[in-house]
Each structure stands twice: as C-alpha cells, then as structure tokens.
Amino acid sequence: MNKIIKLLIVLAIFHQYEISAQTKKVSRDWTSFTQTIEVKTDKKTKFKLQGLIKVDRTDTTGVAALWARVDNTNGESGFFDNMMDRPATKNEWNTYTIEGEIDKNAKSINFGGLCLNNGKFYFDDIKLSIQSKKGDYEPISLTNASFEDPVKNELIPGWNQGVGRGKVVLIKEFTAQSIKNDGNTSKSLLIEGKNIVNSYVIKTDEEFSPQIGVMISMLNNLSTRVERRVQDLDIRQTDHLMDEKANRIGALIMHLAAAEVYYQVYTFEKRGFNEEEKEKWMTALDLGEKARDLYKGKPIDYYLNIYKEVRTKTIEEFKKRNDSWLNDMRPGSIMNNHYAWFHVMEHQSSHLGQMLMMIKRIPEEKEQKKIEVKKNIDQ
User: Fold this and answer.
1) N or C: which end of the chain has fewer CB within 10 A?
2) How confident is the model over 278-328, as pLDDT tens digits?
3) Rounded to whole angstroms, how far apart are CA atoms 225 and 8?
C-alpha cells in the first residue's frame, strides 16, 4: 500500500455490541448497518464503495441500497449518497457502486447497506477502495465484508446497526440472519422487513370522510417523523439545552401535545381551556423558564406516550365528523376548523425542524463533559 493510502487510513473503527437491557429497539420503516473508517488527506481524493445486493420484494415499495457519508472535522457532513434515486429492486444478484470524494476537511467515511419497507434484502461482498496518488483504487481491509461470520443475537459481527457515530439501533420491523448461498458453503446477509406500513403515501382511511382522512394521514405522517427522530435519544440528549433560553426536546414534545389538546377543545367543543386544562397544559404550551424546570430528568418515552395519547383522542373525535364540519367556525373566530388543524400540522412541522437542528447540536458525551468542566472553571 503506497504512502497516500497510509496517510488516508489513520484508524479503522469496528464496534461489536451485545444485546442487553440497555439496547433500545425502535420502530421505523428502514434499517441499516455501518462500518466507519477515519480518514485524512490534504487534497480531494476519490473513493468507491461496491457490494452485491438482491431484493425479494413483498410489495412494490421494498428497496435496498448501499450508502456512504463523509463526516467532516467541522461537525458537518460532506459527501452523501444512499442510492435512493437508483435503489436495488431486482430479485437477482447485482453489483452496485457509489463513487464519492473526500477532501482536507474529511474526518471519517461511514458506509454500509440499508433496507426500506417490506421484503427480503440480501447483501454480500462489500468493498471499499480509495484512490492512490497514482490514480489507482486500492482496497481497504474491512471486517466481515462478505458476512462469513454469522449473525448472533440480532447483531451482525463487525458491523454496527445504525448509521454510525457509535450507536446501536435495532429496528422492531426488521430481522437479520446469515444464510448459505446457493450451490456453495459461503454465506450472505439476509435482512427481512415485515408488517411495515408505507409512510410515503397520503391516503384516506375508510373510517374517515375523504378530506378528513387525508388530513389525518398528513397529521400522522408528521407525528411519526417526530417520533422516529427522537425515540432513540437518552435522557442526557432529551434534556440538552443549547443555551440558557432554549427549550429541551422533551419540553418541545410536550408543547406539541399541549397545542393539539388546545385545538381539540377549540374545534371539537368550541371553547378555550378550562382551569383544570390550564393547570395541566399551559406550562407546556407557554414553554420558557417554568417548562425548563419542569420537563427534565424523564426518558423520551415519557413524552412520546403523552403525545400519542393526545393523537389517539384526536383520531377518535375526527371519526365522529365529516368533511362539512371542516368548514365550521367557532363563534367569533376568523378561521374555520380546517384551517385550525392545518395550523396543527404547520406547528408540528415547524418544531420538527427545530428538533432536527437541536439533535445535530447535541455534543457527544465526552465533549459534553469537557464543556461542563470548562463551565465549572469559568465559574
């Protein structure tokens, strides 16, 4: 291996985890597996990721792909490709390729495979190569790249389930196993997705009138996005404050629940909060210092369960109404019921964006400790 490759490959990181009570399973419509290598170069350098994929789909939405992401030293992402513009869909082995680039800001390359929706997704012979000074692509040694080491306790040896950054994320809807390839004793990886409802289709459920059904589909799509982005956060992350005037993610989930409860009574009962409801929900609705003091020290599931309970009531109430009700107005109001619930969707979308930004700004645990030490010194 020549000098440029030696310079590029500073450290290969491969974590092997064991299932324990602390390993969290979450629910979503995709899963992935990852390896990470740290890289360093003083100029733009190309890399190539290749692998064999076969897909046995149970519906037309099931797809598989390779993926690669470059993390930079400034905390931002560099090159990214997950093949969603050209996913694997054929029930035969084919080689798929991602070609990317790193530069002087690059810190690491995260790469692996991913699956979306229902089906059986097969992977084998993953290869990563980086361009040398002469322009040739030189292979990088990977762990269990051909999946000959069998899956045990839901874990793929040498690979981290998730999208990097040292976290194991197991998905309830997906199972992994090792299988023998036809005609020989070599193995490949099989990941199977079952009972996944496609979240990328807006549709009307028969339980609702047409426009209400579309609106419920949109509301649930947004709330599902919120849940999926926060459900694997630990208490440290859930309680993180970007600054002394910011709101914690847990408080924001409570805020979404409180706002939805307000519009429940506003549209379904044509009134505002009564005193009991004010006592229960106004801190979350107003946020600020009181919410910062109240909403902390609880796991993310505490907030999500409340959020889900509120949505359950919303759906139950909408089943009692039809499309003509959407045009009704509360006396003295300037907006009809349809606009009020559009605003609930708008509200969810706005705070989802806020939470996505906050999640990106949560420091790693070691970095967090350094920040806390510095604050103590400053004081």
Assistant:
1) C
2) 999 999 999 999 999 999 999 999 999 999 999 999 999 999 999 999 999
3) 37
Q: What is the pTM of this model?
A: 0.67
The helix, strand and coil proportions of the chain, stated in percent and rounded to the nearest 5, come to: 35, 25, 40
Residues 6+ apart with CB under 8 A from 220: 311
State the sign of the Cα–Cα–Cα–Cα dihedral 322, 323, 328, 333. positive
Dist CA 294 CA 309 (whole Å): 20
183 shares a domain with 65: yes
Strand duo 77-81 + 63-72: pairing: antiparallel
**Would 199 be classed as within a structural domain?**
no
Helix H or strand E encompassing 247: none
- For residue 30, being part of any structural domain is answered with yes
Q: Into how many domains does the chain fold?
A: 2
Residue range 116-126, pLDDT digits in tens: 999 999 999 99
User: Phi and psi of 339, rounded to 5°?
Assistant: -65, -35
Domain-embedded: residue 142: yes
For residues 55 and 190, what is the distance between their CA atoms, to the nearest angstrom? 10
Residues 275 and 308 in one domain: yes
Asked if pLDDT for residue 196 goes beyond 70, the answer is yes
Question: How many angstroms separate the Cα of 285 from the Cα of each of 38, 261, 348?
Answer: 44, 10, 13
